[in-house]
Amino acid sequence: MGTGFARLWRLAIPCADDAGDRRELLSLRQLPSGTPRLQRLRELTQNVYSGAFSFRRNWLAFVALVLIFLGLGATLGSWLQSLNTPAWLLGFIMMFPGVVVARLWVAWAMRRLGGRAAEVVDAFLEEGICPTCAYNLAGVMSGEEHNALVACSECGARWRRDRVRRVVQEETDTAREPWSLRAAMRNAGARIVSMEGVDDLGRTTVFVRQLDLAGVEKAATGERQERVRRARRRLAAVGRWSRALLGLLIVPFAAVLAWSILRRPLASLGMADAFHAFAVLLYLWWIVVLLRSDVGRRGPKRRALFLDESLCPACASDLGPADADGWRDCPDCRTCWKAGTGAEGPA
Ligand SMILES: [Zn+2]
Ligand SMILES: [Zn+2]
To answer: Which pLDDT score, from 0 to 100, does residue 175 have?
Structure first.
């Protein structure tokens, strides 16, 4: 297995550092987490990576994969059958080419995401974290100030000094949370419910979820708390009909199953009905999850109502005052917003 194949096999998006050396972004398993800003970086990177699995982008490859899977499996299968291979081994071996091809396909799809590497690199450097190893760059920023490039002491990648915006030693050097079940569940959940969006400069960011806004409101005080509360209340109504409609689509499935159990006498119910009852509960749970989700909350309404309250539409922090051209920076998540009509700075 040469280095060429090993590279083909790796699940990471290729990128280049500012010295022009070829590197790889952090893999999904290495992403930082633990504080709100690290969590944003994680979700942003996860969202970029998830493009590798999107069916819409990859459906042709998916069809090809199925054909290869069938073709290779069938050819190999008939050949092995002529050698009198036992059935269990035959099944296992026939699966193998498909699994290898699927893995290679995902790796290849990640290579194709190279065009989006710049977004991730940007976001990491703005937060002072090395995009290729998650090392906190604060430690290396102080030395050799005359150098335009800083070299990460962990992985050697070199980055332009002026791209590293936040220099904070508050996190551990590797910016990685120790493993815990709670963190693992939260991070797995973030892959499903994370909201990707863009700021007014067109840069990718992650929007805070409605459920998390409650925590933001609780942490705020005085007049800011009042503004967060108003934004949260108004955002609650945004996308309500989309969520209700999607929820309604699930109702018939639950109703048919429930009816198949309820219309029969209790004594005749068996094990299969227990499974059906469980499925009904599952459907109902889906509806609850959907209604509590942020489906329909990414659009321009969100942006407008947050800007009305002088809050960052991405993270709900207080926006700074507008510059001469009407641009307002978020001091926390580094997004930029063009002040809308009627948007005033915090008093
Ligand atoms: Zn590094
Ligand atoms: Zn923000």
So the answer is: 65
Ligand nearest to the CA of 320: 2
Q: Residue 332 to residues 19, 298, 312: CA-CA distances in angstroms?
A: 28, 19, 9
Q: Which ligand is nearest to the CA of 307?
A: 2
- Ligand at shortest distance from the CA of 306: 2
Largest CA distance in the chain: 84
**Hey, where are the domains in the chain?**
3-121, 194-237+297-338, 240-292
Extract the runs of DSSP E, i.e. beta strands, from the chain: 14-16, 22-24, 149-151, 158-160, 195-198, 204-207, 327-329, 336-338
Residues with Cβ within 5 Å of ion ligand 1?
130, 132-133, 135, 152, 154-155, 157
For residue 135, the CA-to-ligand 1 centroid distance in Å is: 5
Instruction: Please state the rounded mean pLDDT for residues 325-334.
Output: 88
User: Whole-angstrom Cα distance, residue 288 to residue 247?
Assistant: 8
Residue 1: is its pLDDT beyond 50? no
* pTM of the complete model beyond 0.70: yes
